[in-house]
Write a structure and sequence with these properties.
By secondary structure, chain A is mainly β. Helix content of chain A is 0%, strand content 57%. At the A-B interface, strand 4, strand 5, strand 9 and strand 10 of A face strand 4, strand 5, strand 9 and strand 10 of B.
Chain lengths: 111, 113
Amino acid sequence: EDKVVQSPLSLVVHEGDTVTLNCSYEVTNFRSLLWYKQEKKAPTFLFMLTSSGIEKKSGRLSSILDKKELFSILNITATQTGDSAVYLCAVDGNAGNMLTFGGGTRLMVKP
Amino acid sequence: DAGVTQSPTHLIKTRGQQVTLRCSPISGHKSVSWYQQVLGQGPQFIFQYYEKEERGRGNFPDRFSARQFPNYSSELNVNALLLGDSALYLCASSWLAGTGELFFGEGSRLTVL
């Protein structure tokens, strides 16, 4: 059974801080790893990673995958209050797009 | 372009009742997936449909069923509701079933009393 574990469960930081969110996984047939941001209801797509060692970057957010050690990290630099959300990590490890999600990391950014 | 739309947004049912949730995918998307998200947890995969055929099913009892229509919209049905079925039900669409990002709707919040 595929498994995704995220850490920490939650964290509180101040604006301007840098945060690193962790995601480890166990899958039988790895296809991709995805990061989503969930502010209220609909998770919104951040990154999809398929290859080890290649950093994906979008503004202040970046992510990298290590397929040997089976983990990924999501970095957010110069955090803003608008970054407050639950960040979800998911793996696609089966027949395609049937994602296994982790429990999420709840990030709160204080002004 | 409209995103993934779901209805109803909120509903309250009692134990033993049946519920139908509806989802319209993004125009051009042929695959629809359903996820259940219990409060404080990550979403859990229920079903995936592509071109009106079931492509995958998660670890859910037979009380859960779904279908996809010729216009690619989808319905999720849950029979004999239990208290533990209370959750946010998310629909996601993608152009293909096999790869690429999923686009999620705002979800249907089901409360079972």
